[in-house]
Amino acid sequence: MKVGLYFGTFNPIHVGHLTIANHLAEHSDLDQIWFVVTPLSPFKKKSSLLDNYHRLEMVYQATKEYDKLKPSDIEFGLKQPNYTIDTLTYLFEKHPDHDFSLIMGEDNLKSFHKWKNYELILENHSIYVYPRISEGKIETQFNDHPKIIKVNAPIMEISSTFIRKEINEGKNVRPMLPENVWQFIDEMNFYR
Q1: Are 11 and 160 spatial neighbours (Cβ–Cβ below 8 Å)?
Q2: How far apart are CA 141 and CA 135, in angstroms?
Q3: Domain boundaries defined on the chain
Q4: Engineered SS bond to 180: which of 24, 61, 88, 165, CB 3.0-4.6 Å?
């Protein structure tokens, strides 16, 4: 099975995340997309970052009606700080029959050469890159790389940071969130 790993804090998950993941599920050779919820690093205190399990619950609520989209807490049990290469190694040991790929925005590809063991990641995994409006240039070595697949997905410029700020200011952000995610945030009084 070919699985695309979509990493993020998903604080909160929004329709932009879902649109990109669903686009990849429908328009690529990936069988499933796993939303890998990045845990709060014990070395960083970020007051705006909700508890790991609250963010996982929002991802579950957002994806439960999509067969190809799955929440993943795989990083919750790994030592912190954690690197993508460690997660990929762990996943390969746990699921040797799966072929794992990364999903990232074009903005992340611009700094990919700074990632720990990025050469090893590229050697063993494909990377699906969706368009983002951002500053900077992509390293030449990544331009025509056979393992880097540029996806013609819609450009989504919604951010979790913007959503949190709007909720905090009492604005209506319902259209930017899956309905059950909005209900969960509202009931739990998050980001206010």
Answers
A1: yes
A2: 18
A3: 2-159
A4: 61
For 37, the 3-state DSSP assignment is: strand
- Report the DSSP beta bridge partners of residue 94: none
- Three-state DSSP state, 135: coil
Q: Which tokens is 81 given?
A: 């700080």
Six token digits for residue 29: 């050779």
Rama region for 191: left / alpha / beta (φ>0; ψ in -120 to 50; rest): left
- Determine the 3-state secondary structure of 101 from DSSP: strand
d(CA 103, CA 80) in angstroms, rounded, equals 22
Which tokens belong to 162?
């913007």
- pLDDT tens track, the chain, 192 positions: 999 999 999 999 999 999 999 999 999 999 999 999 999 765 556 677 899 999 999 999 999 999 999 999 999 999 888 899 999 999 999 999 999 999 999 999 999 999 999 999 999 999 999 998 888 888 888 988 999 999 999 898 899 999 999 999 999 999 999 999 999 999 999 999
Q: Which residues is 104 bridged to in the sheet?
A: 129
Separation of alpha carbons 36 and 39, rounded Å:
9
